[in-house]
Structure formats: structure tokens, C-alpha cells
């Protein structure tokens, strides 16, 4: 975790445009670990980290934009919609 103000007010000295700063907080998971992503989950009373060690898998995808068609089940509480992007 880096301090935003340090980054925001930094003056780069050379032409590379690179700035090296020390993080204000670090977390060592384990030796020889390769994380693909890490997200802090904020829940009331519980703060924990979700760490993934492999590429994420898409579980669901949905259409975007306006609803173009709608189908409702006559026997249960289900419905489906579709949009112009065909999802």
C-alpha cells in the first residue's frame, strides 16, 4: 500500500519518468507464491483478503443496455432477458 499524497505530489528528477517510493504496508503471503490478484473484502466486523493463485474463471455473464426480450416461466419464479449484445 502506498501513500497517495506522496505519489500525487512527487517530482520526477530524470527523463525516465520513474519514481521509487517505499510502501507504507506490506503483506508476505508465503515464499515462492505467485498471486494473480488480491482484493480486500470489507464486511462489517470482518476485514479479510481474497487471494487468487490462478486466472479467474467467469461464472456468469449478462447482457448490457436495455432489455430487448423477456421470457417468464409459467410454472415457477424464473425469468430470462436478452439485449442487443446477444448475451
Automatic annotation (TrEMBL):
Main location class: other
Localization (cell): Cell projection, Cilium; Cytoplasm, Cytoskeleton
Keywords: Cell projection, Coiled coil, Cytoplasm, Cytoskeleton, Repeat, WD repeat
GO CC aspect terms: cilium; cytoskeleton
Database matches in PANTHER family: CILIA- AND FLAGELLA-ASSOCIATED PROTEIN 43-RELATED (PTHR14885), CILIA- AND FLAGELLA-ASSOCIATED PROTEIN 44 (PTHR14885:SF3)
Listed name of the protein: Uncharacterized protein
